[in-house]
Amino acid sequence: MRTRFTGIVAVLLGSIVVLAGCGSSASSTAGSKTIVIATHDSWAMSKSVMAAFTKQTGITVKIEQHGDAGELTNKLVLTKGNPIADGVFGIDNTFATRAVDAGILADYTPWSEPASVSRFNLAQGSSQLTPIDYGDVCVNVDNTWFAKKKLSPPKTFEDLTAPAYKGLTVTPAATTSSTGLAFLAGTIGRFGNGWKAYWTKLTANGLKIDPGWTEAYEGDFTAGGGQGTYPIVVSYSSSPPYTVPKAGGAPTTSALLDTCFRQVEYAGVLKGASNPGGVEKFIDFMQGRQFQAALPENMYVYPVDTTVALPPDWARWAPVSPHPYAVSAADITANRNAWLRDWRDLTSR
Amino acid sequence: MRRNLGVATLAAIPLAVIGVFFLYPVGGMVARGFWPDGSLDVHGVLEVLGRSRVHRVLWFTVWTAGTATLLAVGAGLPVAFVLHRLRFGGSAAVRTLMVLPFVLPTVVVGVAFGQLLRPTGPLGGLGLEGTPAAIIAGLVFFNIGVVVRTVGAFWEGIDRRTEEAAATLGASPFRVFRTVTLPALVPAVVSSASVVFLFCATSFGVVLTLGGLRYSNIETEIYLLTTQELDLQAAAALSILQLVMITVLLVLSHRTRRTPAIAQAVRRARRPGFRDTGLLLWTAVVTAFLLVPLVTLALASLRDGGRWSLSNYRALQTTGTDNALLVTATSGLLRSLEIAIQAASFALVLGSVVAWLVSRRPAAGWRRRLSAGFDGVFMLPLGVSAVTLGFGFLITLDHPPVDLRTSSLLIPIAQAMVALPLVVRTVAPVLSAVDPRLREAAASLGAGPVRVLLAVDLPHAWRGLLAATGFAFAVSLGEFGATSFLARDDSPTLPVVIFQLLSHPGPANFGMAMAASVVLAAATGTVMLLVDRLRVGSVGAF
After folding, report:
1. Which residue of A15, A129, A290, B19 is most buried, as measured by CB atoms within 10 A?
2. Which domain holds residue A332?
3. pTM of the full predicted structure?
4. In terms of Cα–Cα distance, which of B523, B470, B469 is closest to B493?
5. Which segments in chain B show pLDDT lower than 50?
6. Which residue does chain B place closest to A30, by CA atoms?
7. The CATH number fitting domain B2-28+41-304+311-539, selected from 2.60.40.10, 1.10.645.10, 3.30.420.10, 1.10.3720.10
8. A-contacting residues in B 325-354 (Cβ below 8 Å)
9. Is the ipTM above a cut-off of 0.95?
């Protein structure tokens, strides 16, 4: 009997020791040679590019991911004054004004910016947020599916409400996905106050709404990973190159360039950062040619320095929209909650 | 007197832990809603409660969670009997299968269910896609294991002689069940039902993924209000609603919980006979219900560009196509295991102390109410939004002595908070079932309190403790909600890795996510099997 009880006690004690042991592994390094960058879940960058920054400056970058752009911005707003990081990357034009209005960012503008950057600058707050990349949220169609059905694919927002395309479209929700919000913003840019009438028709035409881009593209889109049943999906102008067949040739999907909304992503220094100088160097680096050139294949976005060459697949199959629909960042911040409430009421049954 | 002091000291430890790591962060978040600009604004919060949208959300939460709980208990009870009172080949494997859904990340299950329910899918004919029925099916899928395991562990310990006596006196098997077994099971059933209800009422991924965004429960609403709209007043109002709901539930479940039957020597499970056919068939149906989405997942992990292949599994040693990950998927698995060991140990130690204290059952009066209140505090993490907790950590634990925002202990602690109620709920009924006369006998024979604990309580609670350990470990392995709202450093857990893979385009990343999900399920399954093995080996020794 005794040995068994001793064993039980040993297990309990052992677990306490394990716990106590892990306490010592907790570490927070905030020396001048390290910077912490808060970013969203879509961050991806190759190790060699990040190593190049460390080699140039001696600074190590610690990346911490905080959900989507909205969650990221809100966390930074809530921790104002005692920030969770030194700098931020990934606040986009739909959340920029909230961050600027909340006063969480310090002024910084790179000393020498690529010439093409100016057209991505914010109307208000350009002294705090530096443009790094942009992307177009556009409706994508599965050409293989339409060819098989002998149906011509849609081209415009209005086409999506046509009876021929009933029950074929899937989109991420505007309330839970920044892609979905960009699509909603695109329709507001296109229809102005008439956007509610448009969405009423769109919903009535069998629109499927998913919580995130993943569920929509990988789950429900016919050309995504999950062999879905919807041949029309809200995604990016940069999505088609990923549907180039293994054997080569043209992608099996294309983006409808008349249905696009432009998202611009910004970086900034947080007020109260322990190492603002390091973040400034990193922002300069992000606008540099090496980082800009690596953006497409790591984060599926276009560099703001338009003189940087795109990957061959992108240059060929992923053109950006020549005339994306626009809504000003200030307008979005002022109306977002009202739009989203209206949108929720329109789309829920 | 000295005994009271000892109990109070022991109670102070878990209270302090839950105070710092749960009540303080959640309170901080709610306070932001009540004091939006530094001055108290109760009116603004009350105004939110009058919105018709809030009423709809509340009603949807209550009826879906209620229905799912009834279904999970109804479907789970027969299975608990078959898996814990009968002995047949493969029962250990089925027991393990029951818990697997519980630890899978909801986004993965969402994709698997989605493939089944979409119009052209195998179950498309049911027309369930995007309906409340799909949400409820998902909730039952996730929670049936909780019922089977909690009730099953208790059922094993019930004295069979009363049942046998009733049968000998001529009662039909159904009558025996209704008049003897069921009343004895009530504590465990009520326990598991309240846990399942709270899980359902705070479920997040299932409602978002399977409901097609057309439905909102309190949890998804808090998520939207906090992470997207930054409407902290409304979020605080809903958090208060959650607290009220869990309090009402705890009071109700406390009222119905009667003095449990007294455990006696456990006998070996018997072989199934002809009269068990119906129950066995039902178990097969439930097993199939759980297996289908899991098999869908496993098949998807073996597909690569229209061919069968193991390439998705080989890819787990990489960072995915186009650097979708910061680390390899395999290092994510190791990180998950490491965190799970920490979180499970923490939850087990803390939960055992709490369970032991609440199972003391003072006779009556203020001490009994105090004990019930104490018990209730540790159930709170079940009913409160992970978003509120996660954001609360960020805004409250941000200055010395507890600046934990960047600590590697933060995630294990948060997960232990989530697992704690399960540990308490699994261990407490088993300890309550210990005949107090045994303790009294031991004490009168001269055994000190520690000796009584080791000689009386531990041998009885051994099985419950193991079940609880397995549960806590499994919860930690699959935990995504609270983990994802905390800062994620460069060593993410496997569920986070899966989520990141799914958020990057390309069929290769999708396949890799499916493979990682299968690995996660397999890792959890192995742990649960080991726990089962250990227990079987020690049954005869009691």
Report:
1. A129
2. 136-262+327-347
3. 0.79
4. B523
5. 259-265, 536-542
6. B406
7. 1.10.3720.10
8. 325-326, 341-342, 344-346, 348-349, 352
9. no
